[in-house]
Amino acid sequence: MLALHTRTGQSQQPSADLRSATLAQDVVWIDLLKPEPAEIGFVERALGIELPTFEELSEIETSSRLRAEDGVIYLSSPLIYRATANNPQATPVGFVLTPDHLVSIRFEELQAFGTPAKQPAATAAEAFAHLMEAVIDRIADILEHIAEELDTMSHRLFRAAPVDAKHRRPAREAASLRYMLRRVGNAGDLVSKIRDSLLSLSRIVPFVCGVAAMWLPDGVKARLETMRHDLTSLSDYDAHLVNKVQLLLDATLGLINVEQNDIIKVLTIVSVVGVPPTLVASMYGMNFKNMPELDWAWGYEWGLMLIFLSAVLPIVWFKMRGWF
After folding, report:
1. Within its chain, how far is the Cα of 50 from the centroid?
2. Residue pLDDT, tens place only, 71-92
């Protein structure tokens, strides 16, 4: 899909026949979403440039993500989409910036691209500033959402009421911990993807300031400098969230180990408690003629009492030792 945004913030659609279409003079931002070959050809003819392909935008080398050729700046960065879903993904996004036009190339719907399209921009640099601010704001919102979710999980792990530990069911607790582990893992995966985006954006902003210093308006330069500080603070906050994710992962795994140890302890106690009664019952089950208890009037009751005591005394001993 091809969208043309003018200086007044209005969107235009090119004519159906792109082979004969022309680019209006008031267009400053050209947005390509999942572009078709005809749309790519139209932009390349209109601007006299060659747009990068999906494979080129996916390159991770700095020289591939940041380059300038004949006064044209080529930029690329991975951005997050479906951040609030269970399966967030990163998609490469490209920017081609000239003194007169901004071209954005993306292959997925991105929420950050909605607001800048409605804002007026006198120049391509101003449109680029609008777009970068929207992307940074979107990343900040995602980080805030992750922080809230991690706080909720932290409260659930470390600040549970003591009564819950007494009346909880082991099966439910184990299922809850497994669910918690998946949530923490998803948060860590999303934070790592955002870190990659922040790293790329923190290189894009100073690169544009340096390469396009001759034709960037002073107002845009000031906004880009503010973005640079914002990206630094977001990178620090992202590192803080990474540490918190690691803490919660370690805590969740530790609680899972405690649950497993409790189960093993219960099985061990049950097996130990069952040994003495089994020994007593097997001894009196041999039925030798010279066993004096066979002739006792209360021999049967005597055997039952021994079996009962041999089972109860180990339990009392374990309880006194504080083993359960």
Report:
1. 35
2. 899 999 999 888 776 778 889 9
Pick 18 or 101 by higher pLDDT. 101
- Please name each of the domains of the chain with its CATH number: 2-260 (3.30.460.20), 261-321 (1.20.58.340)
Among 224, 228, 204, 24, CA closest to 96: 204
What pTM, to 2 d.p., does this model score? 0.78
pLDDT digits (tens, 9 = 90+) for 156-207: 877 655 544 555 566 677 777 788 888 888 888 889 999 999 999 999 999 9
> In angstroms, rounded to a whole number, what is the distance separating the alpha carbons of residues 67 and 25?
26
Mean pLDDT of 51-73: 88
